[in-house]
What we know:
The protein has 16 helices and 15 strands. By secondary structure, the chain is of the alpha/beta class. α15 (402-412) crosses α16. The longest helix is centred in the last third of the chain and has 25 residues, at 435-459.
Amino acid sequence: MTPPRNSNAARDIAYALHPYTDHKAHLQNGPLVISRGKGVRVFDEQGKEYIESVAGLWCASLGFDNERLVQAATDQMRKLPFYHAFTAKSHEPLIDLSEMLIERAPSPMSKVFFANSGSEANDSAIKMIWYMNNAIGRPEKKKIIARLKGYHGITLAAASLTGLPANHKLFDLPIAGFHHVSTPHHYHDALPGESEEDFATRLAEELEQKILAEGPETVAAFWAEPIMGAGGVILPPKGYFPKIQAVLKKYDVLFVADEVICGFWRTGNYWGSQTLDIQPDILVCAKALSASYLPISAVLVSERVFQGIAEGSSSIGTWGHGFTYSGHPVPAAVAIETLKIYDEMDIGGHVKKVGAHMQAQLRARFADHPLVGEVRGTGLIGAIELVADKATKKNFDPAQKVGGRLTKLGEANGVIMRAMTNDSIGFSPPLIISEEEVDEMLNRVAKSLDEIMVQVRRESIAAV
Length: 464
């Protein structure tokens, strides 16, 4: 349906270029225009209410109307609305936030660098590693290994880390020096009868063979999300990360934990690294760092990495990297207030309680549904994967867009969902969600799922 002339939707179609959008379809269908938010809900310009089951993009951790964060931004805007961090300049919000992050790190870290998005933070970490290895006399040690279905952003290098086809096709990516190993998804990729431990052992052996094939002297770092987000909320098999880290230590390969989604209590611990037994050399975070009220991201580096950067900057006279808005005082002030709120609310205790309820309800409601192949998750992150054949785990043909159609039905039923790889539907509601709101959210999802089942039965595209 064509939006009315001069409406917000029509003007959007005329002027805006949207991320992750089929733009030919958008010319016909237009956007969903969101006007305001309150708690875990957002409202469109007609006043229709939606529960945000993914907290926007995994990120609005404190919901959509936290007055303390608004006030923190306002106060800082009046005091110092901007200053930079170039050439050893600083300001109190940058210093305070750096200290708070180092104190909360899951493994010993030395320094914090600020950027504006997870993509920029991951790009910065890549440059740090290359710079460090050049500075300490290892110019050949530059290759990066990530994982298929991993997501690390969309700038050139970060998108090369990302292991999703849509982020590579037509972009001439990945660039040279980036490699990928298998997705740690037991449901789809384990051999018949293979236990989670044995699957994890096989994946660690695959990584070791990849390092040996490339040459250990050329492999610099391994990148991983503790729990894969955009790839489908994929939890690794038991024992996976300890086995992976043993291989990395053997060949002196740095471990970079991408905590952009998992950080700040999403998995039930402060960091996904704590949930999954990871001791990273570098940690990247964003999103819930400021509850996404303003853009900010951070890279935490170990003393070893910092010393390499310091050595290189001494030899050149500067470390030639940074952004105008690195550590911008207003987002930094909001991030500081966000971390204080997490502490004061005992948001970790809340996530453990409500997350256990959400995980139990996801399984109770959907594990036996004819269209659901797997339910997975922990804490307040989870997914249901839609399948055409439950017995064989066969996914729908992507051209049938079953996941996307389900999200549209969800919008009609008052819940905003996210469809991902293999028609996996992700859940990561604001961390402040209550058990009652979880139930209401899943009621709306269940209604939408039953409606899509009617459609696929009518089209004879599922074994139901």
